[in-house]
Design a protein that fits this description.
mainly alpha
Amino acid sequence: MRYRGAVARSKRIARFVATGVALGWLAFTLTSWLIAWNPADANAYYLAAERLRDGGVLYPAMNPEAHEVFRYAPWFAVAWLPLTYLPMAVVAHAWSLLMLACSFLAVWPIARLGGRAAFILAALLLAPLAETAMFGNAHPLVVAVLAWTITRRSAPIWLGIATSVKLVPILLVAGWLGVGRWRDAIVATAVSVILFAPMLLFDLTNYSTTPGTGLFSLYAVSPLVWLLVALASLVSIGWLAWRGSPYVYLAAGIGMFLIPPRVSTAYAAFLIPGLLATMDALERRVTSPARVATAADAIPDGQRV
């Protein structure tokens, strides 16, 4: 009895500490908005659209560490063209607030699952999303789009669009390939290729391909360690896809953080669509006609209704 009581108290303490850490980090991040709000990434989108409007170079030579670097497909700059007729400061700060709203939207599908674990996970992933929203980066929008569409029939289209912005979401296609959803995989890939293709119309001589410091990637620690871990992650995703495992989506979500040579902490939020897709795949497996028929066949004839 004493042992069980000690275990119960330890669990309560662990839950209390985990909740405190998650909420503390989130509170610190949101408070940082009052101190260091600087939508510099939004400025990069604005300036890219402005260069496009004025006939300039869309992908000029820049320091890879600079916030002004534009790496996305051209359509994203085209979408910003109407905004270039408004003051840049107003647009950048409004966009940053929109990204903060997207951060909350991105974690809501996890939070609404209910339970302390889901709440803690949502809070932990909301913090880095809110931080990147402070700089006006489009990352929260990409995660929110994937979180709300990855289990829908239109998922391939949205996945293709998300890939044209952040590239790594294409890893989720592995899950569809593993279960023979060839059409979905082809559509997602085709959409991303179509959106990337116009890049060939621009001068890519100075396009930034170097990861720079790598930020929070293992590349920043050791390029060799990063390469080994990235390869291991790719092999794991491939093996799970070959086996048709529903956990391939979760592995892809983790891989989206481990594989790129340059990531921010917000890339951890790709766990959200990975987890949601895994849960949906597990549910599909349980309710598939073949499984239902197998379960029915296992019932003795005398016990069938």
